[in-house]
Structures are given as C-alpha cells and as structure tokens.
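sorry for the late reply, my laptop died twice this morning and i had to redo everyting from scratch. anyway the thing you sent over, i finally got around to it. pasting the sequence first so we're on the same page, its 324 residues, then the predicted structure underneath. double check i copied it right bc i was rushing
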Amino acid sequence: MRWLLPEHIDDILPAEAMRIERLRRSILDLFIAKRYQLVIPPLIEFTDSLLTGTGRDLDLRTFKLVDQLSGRMMGVRADITPQVARIDAHLLNRRGVTRLCYCGSVLHARPAGPSASREPIQIGAEIFGQAGIAGDLEIQGLLCRALAVAGARGARMDIGHVAVFRSLVRAAGIGRELEAELFEALQKKDAAGLASLTRKLGAATRKALLLLPELYGGSEVLLLAARKLPANQAIRSSLATLNALARACPIPLSFDLAELRGYHYHSGVVFDAYCNGVAGAVARGGRYDEVGRAFGRPRAATGFSIDLRSLSSLKGNSGKKKRE
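ok and here's the structure:
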C-alpha cells in the first residue's frame, strides 16, 4: 500500500501534537528564563562537520546522501548537540560562557529500541566555556527543573564518569585495540570476557578494571571506589565531581562507573534520566570538552537533550508550568 510509512516513522495526530507543542513551549520558556539563547541548526549538512568529534556510534545512526549541487556527502542530523557545538565554535565565537538551547526533529537510521521512533523530537540545553563542576551542577539542576515542568513522576538519574576507565587505560599504556575490546566487555557487563582480556595486565590495573562492573548503586559506590581504585589525580577528580553532583541533585541518583555511553564523544560526567511511564531514558547528557577541539577551538562543554515525544506521552501531561 502506497500510503504506508516506513517502520518506526509515524504521523503525529492532533491531540499528541498539541501536547508536544505545549511541552516544547514550557521547556523552552524555562531555558530562556535561565539565560539560554535559542538556536535552530539546519536539518541537513555536510558530514564533514555534522559528524566531527562524535565517534562511530553517531555515524551509524546517520542517514547519508550525496548533495546534487556540490557532489559532497551530506547527512540528516541524528543528534543536534554537535551542530550546536559547531555554532558556538565557528559562528558565535565568543570568549566567555555561552548558553544555548534548541528544539527540533532528528532522524535515526536505526531505532534506539524496539518501540522507539526513528524521528525523535530533541529539546536540549548546552553550556560552552564553563569548565569544572559549576557547569555540571548547572546542567543537572536545569534538567531536573525541566522534568518537573513536564510533570514527570518518579524522576531518577543514572550517572557515570568516563574519565575513570580512561585514566586506567592511559596509566597502564593500553593500546587502542585492547582498549576497544575492554570497552565492549564493560558495555556488555561481560565479566568472563573482561577477566580474559585483563589476564596479561599488571595486577593493580587488572584489579581496578575487574572492579568497575561492580561499582553500581547508591552513594556507597563512591566510597568503595575511593578505597579500591588507584588514587591518581583523574580518578580523585572524577569521584569529587560525582560526590558534588550527588549532594546537589534533587532527585534520586544511582552511579555506574562502568557506564561508557558515548565514550569517544564524552570526556567526563555522563548521565541518563528516567521517569515513570516512559520505557528507557527520557533524557541523556554529559560533558564533551573534546568536541570543541575537533572543531579547531578547544572549548569546555556540557549539556543534555530530552526526548520530547516520549516525555509528552506521560499520562495527564499538559505541558503546563509547575512551581519550581
């Protein structure tokens, strides 16, 4: 039948469309009230810039086509964050802290899950030029307020820090091939595979890597990590950041020091937010200082994006503002 849409692509009918629009307005109003400036990047651009500094994962999720005018490869954005980083680095080019927000559709070549749309609507906020814990705290607080505005119930956050694993790899002089294999084993929580891969490593490094999948849970995880992981500067700094975020967060937090989502993209804290009534993460974010370097302008950066369609599906969600 010619009127059928592709799998995981859907029309948005009036009732849902109104919920999404109300919620979009409420969250953008929050961002703007907190001094974030709205930008609207293009839906499509050359892959040379679209995929800069993002790693292989985003490349696989991106639809690509040849531009009929230039003959160059173009991509339909699968994530708006790299585009906003490009705008900060090359168009605004400000010296101080820049706060930007955005909202728009993205397109995924593959769905993120069995019931996920391949055309999510992404709304988010990013801070550029704010190094250290201050930016992480601001972004965490803003996300929690956005979830409150949306009326999300049972909001909670899983948080990790990619520098823990990275510092262990760097200190041990582990090559890229083995690093990639260790990464895959940790992502799969494959204890047997991890034990095999670390067999020839030094005792201290092996012990630390084998411990990472066990460092999952509440604040006790950070105490255990401080006692049992190597006391190098990168790990001490990572744990201090996580402790500060735990003290400030108004919603329940859990920690996972083997969480390496976006490992080749993120440089510090990574987090996923969840709430009742939505399967999977409703928001994701973290620090990605290295992306600015890939654009030729080193720039501290952190932020998050929310899946607006998933959030709007919550029962009773009208997108009305709630008292902060």
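Residues 320-324 have pLDDT under 50 and may be disordered.
thats about all i looked at so far, will dig more tmrw
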